[in-house]
Design brief:
mainly alpha; 2 helices; IS256 family transposase
Length: 66
């Protein structure tokens, strides 16, 4: 086996161009989803924090009726 039968998929110059093409990629859908997820998590954490801070320091949770 003295000859190579495989060739690279893309020439090196095309690979570098492809990499540069996606370096500054901006997807408005992804950005909107990230903003919505961030807002949801922030609202959830603020609600839990408000609930914790509203209790007195040593207050116990109400027992569930059994």
């Amino acid at each position: 086996m003295t000859s190579h039968i495989t060739t690279p998929c893309l020439p090196q110059s095309e690979i570098e161009t492809t990499r540069q093409l996606f370096d500054n990629w901006f997807d408005p859908i992804e950005a909107d989803l990230r903003d919505r997820a961030r807002d949801f998590l922030q609202a959830m954490l603020e609600a839990e924090l408000d609930e914790v801070l509203a209790r007195s320091r040593y207050a116990r949770r109400a027992k569930s009726p059994s």
